[in-house]
Design brief:
By secondary structure, this protein is an alpha/beta fold. The protein folds into two domains: about 10-230, 2-enoyl-CoA Hydratase, Chain A, domain 1 (Alpha-Beta Complex), CATH 3.90.226.10; about 255-465, 2-enoyl-CoA Hydratase, Chain A, domain 1. About 40% of the residues lie in helices and about 15% in strands. It has 18 helices and 17 strands. It has a seven-stranded mixed β-sheet with strand order 9-10-11-12-13-15-17. It has a six-stranded mixed β-sheet with strand order 1-2-3-4-6-8, with helices on both faces. A two-stranded parallel sheet has the order 5-7. The longest helix has 20 residues, at about 115-135. The chain is globular. The termini are far apart.
């Protein structure tokens, strides 16, 4: 067995290192086939045959496991459409085969902006698949073997248990994103010590958010073995996580001071989505969840012009759990997740709370009620932005959107920087390009939107027709 730490190794070597000797084998022919991205040549980038993720079957401590290892050496491990699709297929194979566990060796900067629309849609399906797998009783564990950010951090946090190797970082918003949004006084992207104190494995572990595992093969194998032995039923783990996150919000901290800026969600319904709530009433004091009168149809409150932060995500989770995750339903129930927002909260405070775990919990709560027979639909009337859309409405079985709606993976200036094109050229791309265009018609080309409707009245009719 290789006694080397995992960080210096390539993905296949990492899998071989933690697996039992000579036990690594292909998952199946479809996942072994080449899957280079067809979208990168356009940007002058050579595709990689595995699109930045290796998958395999093996035994570990004598038990069958499936393993995925992301490759941070290729475009920072970013999840392109084929990369994310391989993860989804792996989780579906696991659902059919029911191995003792699935292990994800996480090392990714998040959704690949070079192919933003198909990549976000594909990674959202992978997130739904891993939670469906957990709901079916298969344990999933993630270990950050390199920096893990963006949507990949939500996927890693959606595991039953998450660990990090020393020196790695976990966060939803990158340091430069927060600095650009709020200034250097919020986060100094050039201050390595400050970034380690906010995103680093040691800080995350000290706060009780993750396990810290030495970069040693035997230590990693021991952690996985202990995680398997302590695995809990999905519903119980969701309930336990809900309690942990509530306690985290209540704990005083300098970095968790109450927000005074405009990112706090407006309790009033956004104008664009307000028509959906006609003849509906809130079922909780904070108005996070509404029910259509005399119908078994519920709607989450849209965030609208605010952002989805830890408190908003936790409020939505609490309301959904209270109404739809308890008791036996006498009739079919439908939950509409309204995905409108200006994105996730990108702040020091949100990262100090590990917002990735709050968004993963929201996706897990949606998966839990789905597993109990609730039909889940997504609605988008205005803007579906970044991880907020990814972890909410995109977790629905089908998304119904208004034709004026937009899906924003990241702001145009950031996309221009990643793609290496002048900012002046980004305008036409974000309007008309299938890969990075923001109007919902572009996103719908990749199968992520079931129906594009003309106006809110048509969407409301669709909501009632599902009942």
């Amino acid at each position: 067995m290789n006694a080397t730490g995992l960080r210096p190794l390539a993905p296949r070597e990492r899998i071989a290192a933690i697996a039992d000797p000579d036990s690594v084998a292909p998952v199946d022919s479809s996942l072994e086939a080449p899957r280079p991205s067809p979208h990168l040549a356009r940007w002058g980038i050579d595709a990689q045959v595995d699109d930045g993720v290796v998958v395999a079957r093996a035994t570990m401590l004598g038990a069958p496991v499936l393993i995925a290892a992301q490759d941070e050496r290729f475009l920072r491990g970013s999840a392109g459409a084929n990369h994310a699709e391989a993860l989804r297929k792996l989780f579906e194979v696991a659902s059919a085969e029911r191995p003792r566990a699935v292990v994800v060796l996480a090392a990714s900067g998040g959704v690949r902006l070079h192919e933003a629309n198909p990549a976000e849609a594909s990674l959202a399906r992978a997130l739904a698949a891993v939670l469906e797998l957990r709901a079916a009783g298969v344990a999933v564990f993630s270990l950050c073997v390199a920096d893990t950010f963006g949507g990949a951090s939500v996927l890693a946090s959606a595991a039953e248990r998450i660990a990090m190797l020393p020196g790695t970082r976990l966060g939803l918003s990158g340091p430069a994103v927060i600095e650009t949004a709020h200034g250097r006084s919020e986060v100094d992207a050039s201050d390595a010590a400050a970034l380690a104190a906010l995103f680093g494995a040691e800080a995350r572990s000290a706060a009780g958010y993750v396990d810290l595992v030495d970069d040693d093969v035997e230590a990693v194998r021991s952690w996985i073995g202990a995680a398997v032995r302590s695995a809990m039923p999905f519903a119980a783990r969701v309930a336990a996580m809900q309690q942990q996150l509530s306690a985290r919000l209540a704990a005083p901290s300098e970095d968790r001071r109450q927000r005074t800026d405009t990112t706090v969600a407006d309790p009033l319904l956004p104008r664009s989505s307000a028509p959906l709530y006609v003849d509906a009433d809130p079922v909780d004091a904070a108005k996070w969840l509404w029910r259509v009168r005399n119908r078994d149809v519920w709607l989450t409150r849209a965030i609208g012009t605010g952002t989805l932060g830890p408190r908003e995500a936790q409020g939505l989770c609490a309301a959904i759990l209270a109404q739809l995750a308890v008791g036996d339903a006498p009739a079919p129930r439908t939950l509409w997740v309204v995905g409108d927002s200006h994105g996730h909260e990108a702040s020091r405070r949100a990262e100090s709370l590990c917002i990735s775990q709050f968004l993963a919990q929201l996706a897990a709560v949606i998966a839990l009620v789905r597993s109990r027979g609730v039909r889940v639909r997504g609605a988008l009337t205005d803007i579906g932005h970044s991880a907020a859309f990814f972890a909410s409405a995109l977790q629905a079985d089908a998304v119904h959107a208004l034709e004026r709606a937009r899906v924003v993976a990241m702001e145009p200036a950031a996309i221009a920087r990643v793609l290496g094109i002048p900012a002046a050229q980004i305008g036409s791309l974000v309007e008309d390009d299938p890969l990075v265009g923001q109007p919902v018609r572009n996103f719908a080309q990749w199968g992520a939107v079931a129906e594009v409707l003309s106006d809110a009245s048509a969407l409301r009719a669709r909501m009632l027709a599902v009942d």
